[in-house]
Amino acid sequence: MTIKGKACLVGAYEHPTRKAEDKSVAQLHAEVAKGALEDAGLSRRDVDGYFCAGDAPGLGPLSMADYMGLKLRHMESTDTGGSSYLIHVAHAAQAIAAGKCGVALVTLAGRPRSEGSSGTQPRSWGAAVPDAPFEAPYGIVTTNSYAMVAMRHMHEFGTTSEQLAWIKVAASHHAQHNPHAMLREVVTVKEVLDSPVIADPLHRLDCCVVSDGGGALIVARPEVAKSLAGQKRRPVVKIIGAGEAPKGQNGGKLDLTTSGAAWSGAAAFEEAGVRPADIQYASIYDSFTITVLVQIEDLGFCRKGEGGKFVADGNLISGTGKLPFNTDGGGLCNNHPANRGGMTKVIEAVRQLRGEAHPAVQVKNCGLALAQGMGGQLGTRHGSATLIFERE
Amino acid sequence: MNLSQERKIPAPTVNPENKAFFDGAAQGKLLIKKCNSCGEVHHYPRAICPFCFSDRTEWRDAKGTGTIYTYSVLRRGVPVPYCIAYVTLDEGVSMLTNIVDCDLGAVRIGQKVKVVFKPTDGGPPVPMFTPA
Asked: Predicted ipTM?
């Protein structure tokens, strides 16, 4: 069975807040759910499937279905960190194709900025985690984990800090047009390199922002999507391919410069029946500049090791570059709600396919888009997820 | 730049599956797991081999020498900078660790290193590495 054409994205909403000191996490989940339903033109009573991840409080779907008063016949709480929401979209499409639900709601929300989270703090997943005794004593945190990947990539392929900086420069070119973005100032390669080193070789401006907020998506049957698109006078956004893959340390036989995107991407392209060269817009998870570079290679936009050359000289800037990416400013400039950037990757891809991105960054006649997520840590173990969407 | 390491090292959580590793560390021995079914060594150590799923794994003494696969010095947001690294042991597997007792500004991929054991905050010592 394929999900190709079996389900559509009919609603997408990004919370405008970047600091939510006066709101609870459950409240933010409900606010984004309301926003996405309104965007879709549906009501809460239409929802019969619900998807959330570890950012949802309590027992995920149980706590949130009760809070929001949802009547469900399908629920799921796969958690692969920041890529969870791409997997939720794929699984919602599977559930819809199997007749298990007709309208699925996916929510993400969190307030790490208000709670003082940072990428230089250790994150604990509990005493039973088998890898933790062999990692926690050494001070593995988010920044130095990704930094080790960058260091190895530079060693194997000659990738430079200047090339990585171009990824941030491109994101900042897009963010200047987003009134909600945390960092709207256009930066130069030199400014990235002059920012303080956080974890060699990553500078402060190689790192994403920490923000509060959230987002939600509505996935529905094609018939529902067609009727809603008619009412809203906008195109249908079909899900045509999906892939997911975990990757870890492989029992100590490391290969840090390749990510699970090599498998999730290949699976998604095969299901969609398209090639990387066909993609007109790509949302690519950008917890750090190196995260983008590795995924671009693994998705096949260029060969392994040639990512540095590919991203340099503004090649990711919409309107001038070959692969317009993260036209909302991405995690590097716009937001990274709950320290999980997968949701906003899907939302901006939907905007592009509807032609609703900011005019300055809108890809002309955008008919085919990709969203790529990366959760967990690239330097230890991570979950990759790829989605391909087509405008009808 | 000479950045010496004086970081308080969090104690590892010892459980029945990994106890032998940390008992070994307390005696100054670096242990790795070898599978008697497929012959592969692995790290972090498991009761079940991650390569062939056999339960015929046993502890072996590692030589305690290796090469730096990658590293990063965390310089901001922490009281004392420290160097995290993966070291590829001569036995062929890589382990997450710290590079210590040296000029952290001079650490390089490919550098030869040897094991040293460092005390943790209320737990058994853990293996770290220093230039050989």
From this structure: 0.96
